[in-house]
Amino acid sequence: MDVCQAFETFEEFIEYRKGDLRNCDLSKNIYLNVDFSKCIVDDTTKLPIKDNTNLSYKVKKSYVDNRFIVEQFWYDDKDKCVKKQSDKFLYFFDFVAFLKGDLSGADLILCTGMKNLPNVYGINLNNVKMTSELCKQFKISYSSYDFNKKLIREFPISEKNEEQTKIILQQSREIVVDDDNKFSNKFKKISYISDLHLMHKIKNAKCKSKEDVIFVLQKNIDNILQECHGITLIGGDLSSEFSLYEMFIKMLRKSADKLFGKVYFVFVLGNHELWGFPGLSIEQIVKKYRTLLHENGMYLLQNDLFYENEYNDVGIIPYDELICMDNKDILEKLRCTRIAIFGGLGFSGYNEVFNALNSVYGLTIDRNVEIRESRKFEQLYYKLIDILSNKNTVIFTHMPKQDWCMDKNYDDNFVYVSGHTHRNVFFDDGLVRIYADNQIGYGNGSLHLKYFLMDNEYDCFFDYDDGIHEITSQQYQDFARGKNINMTFNRQINILYMLKKNGFYCFIHKSELGTLSMLNGGAFYKLRIQRLKYYYANMDRMIESIKKPLDKYSEYQQNISNEIKKIGGSGRIHGCIIDIDSYNHVYVNPVNMIVTGYYALDIINKKVYGNIPELLKTNCPKLYCNYMKMIEKDDVLILNKKKDEVSKLPQEYLETDIYKASREMKNMQKISYNVLSVWYDSILDENIFDIQ
Question: If residue 587 lies in a helix (H) or strand (E), which one and from where to where?
Fold first, then answer.
């Protein structure tokens, strides 16, 4: 048996050991201040590392995320960090006391609360990084900062657009997602923002020092990171000055690395990003920005295609490859793509009013180059349109479509995200989707991200003709993943067939003995009729026989689910069962539509109630109270107790047939994925669902 003894002080430990520190490891106690010459030590003794004269020491003091932080590092003679100690403090004076008043070299740029200090007597602020306001308050000198005034300019048409549509910019659109899809992979949130115009932000904030600039940038970065999602689009016109653009990107990367989840930042350039490079070609300028973003783990699109596949597999097909690749090769590369983003600056080749003649690119490019670049993007857009129409695609440009494309109409298959005009516009009727409503502009002091939802499914067989196709096990698994169907599939297969007809799929396995089985996820179900063409010929009839009554049943279930949600319950639908909470549920009989409430600890032990109100009253008092309020307003119809219904005591029900019926219903509900995974030779045997 191991015995462990603890001591409150080192003196008690020394006394207990009688001064013998052999086989003792004290290396991690960096604050121990003891004369070890009076102790017994040898090669097995590990003394505190600060007593090792061969070590160098560095300390970093900062204020980050509303905490004062002291990070101490010890390095050996090979510059290897052998010890790191980090201490965090909520209060300023605890921070000061820990450092014994020595704040020299500290980064306190974001510590605005220091302005409330009446004085800083006794505190060493030598080389401290603070805003110019605090430096002035505490009579500390600072280096002034100035930007290239030639690179900052406002266009009257943009200012006018900005003023006229600032209400749209400030509007927040909360997209409603039902609970069943809230945590599923069915949709993906994509955040977007454009036209930050950081030089105007710095000018408007009256920044006097580099620290002032860092303060403004960090506040904007914090706003972005609070609201960003898996993919965040930043649509150009960040800064006309490359050094400021570079500072923003490096700070964004540093802050984003602290996030829990992975965020992909996808950029396009704006016309302002070209201003600082007169004399350089478009290709040279793009290379400069692309290198910066690549070094910081971000993506720049300039006539390129970004894609996200399975398992966070992301990448870019660059312009040079896209123009050379055959469409079939591009299609094959994108077969398992969930999200595709085709993007670039776009340019204003088709805009006869506001273009290079108005110096929108500074002195970097002329009208001829602008027209050439727009046509380059337009031609590639038309080349990819047939491929990308079958994918979840975003067309992401700085300029709006009418500036870079002769056809002003928007394709129903794409989501269009743009900026440049400062005229904030949003349109989404379920077909045409235009998101140009988060152009921050020159004068807006605060910024927020907006987002839209994209389908997060793909169909890896979308280009297959109707018919019977032999496929591999891997193709079947890719299809299931693309439809977000959870399954385990590790069976050995002989021959696997995919039957495709009118947009619906069916998968049938043929064994070595010639036996046919239908696949439902990873399960095989033997089929009675052993003719493959029979199933293809009758797919339509089977789907219709399932879908028609299922649609009616699903609508009824959804109405019940909505009423449960109204009174504060879950409303989650799975098979024939609708959850009120973790233990209380509603079973909807698919044969007679009878609604039964029950309480279940597990699949065996259940109590069936005479009606839903009795269940709520007994087990969910808060929901019952909400239910009664809704009754007064006649807002609850389906869950309401019928007039001639007699209350009954809860009955114990130990059978598991409801789960069998629910599993069968869940299999049928895969029709919603356009997958036929059940087959009834007698066109649905209704008795399998009935519970008496």
Answer: strand 584-588
CA angle, 421 as apex, 416 and 425 as ends, to 5°? 50
Q: Indicate if 569 and 638 belong to the same structural domain.
A: yes
In whole angstroms, what separates CA 323 from the centre of its chain? Answer: 31
Strand, helix or coil for residue 267:
strand
Between 565 and 344, residue with greater pLDDT: 344
Element (H, E) at 547: helix 539-566
Total domains in the fold of the chain: 5
Q: Would you list the DSSP string of 324-357?
A: TS-HHHHHHHTTT-SEEEEEE----TT-SSSSGG
What's the distance, CA 368 to chain centroid?
40
Query: How far, in Å, are 224, 495, 498, 529 from residue 507 at the CA level?
Result: 45, 11, 5, 15
The 10s digit of each residue's pLDDT in 394-443 is: 999 999 999 999 999 999 899 999 999 999 998 887 778 999 999 999 98
| Beta-sheet pairing, 595-600 with 606-609 | antiparallel
d(C-alpha 502, C-alpha 92), whole Å: 68
- Count Cβ atoms within 10 A of the Cβ of residue 100 and give its class: 0-12 exposed, 13-18 middle, 19 or more buried: exposed
Sort 9 into a burial class: Cβ within 10 Å, 0-12 / 13-18 / 19+: exposed
CATH code (residue 275)? 3.60.21
Residue 195 is given by DSSP the state -
DSSP 371-404: HHHHHHHHHHHHHHHHHHTTS-EEEEESS-HHHH
Which residues, including other chains, have CB under 8 Å from residue 76's CB and lie 6 or more apart?
Answer: 54, 55, 82
Residue 685 lies in a domain: yes
Report pLDDT digits (tens) over 640-666. 655 445 456 677 777 766 666 666 555
Q: pTM above 0.85? A: no
**Beta carbons within 8 Å of 178's beta carbon, 6+ residues apart:** none
Q: What is the mean pLDDT of residues 256-264?
A: 87
- Report the residue count for the chain: 692
Q: Which residue range(s) make up the domain with 505? A: 467-537
- DSSP for 635-659 reads ---SSSPPTTPPP---EEE---HHH
Q: DSSP code of 209?
A: B
Give tens-digit pLDDT for 157-197. Answer: 999 999 999 888 888 766 655 545 554 577 889 999 999 99
* Cβ atoms of residues 370 and 361 within 8 Å: yes
In which residue are the tokens 């992975």 written? 262
* Domain final residue, candidates 496, 515, 537: 537
3 state DSSP class of 368:
helix
**What pLDDT digit, counting tens, does each position of 594-634 carry?**
888 899 887 778 889 988 888 898 999 998 898 888 887 76
Residue 462 lies in a domain: no
In a domain, residue 176? The reply is no
Sheet of 606-609: strands edge to edge?
573-574, 577-579, 584-588, 595-600, 606-609, 651-653
* Domain end (from 537, 554, 575): 537
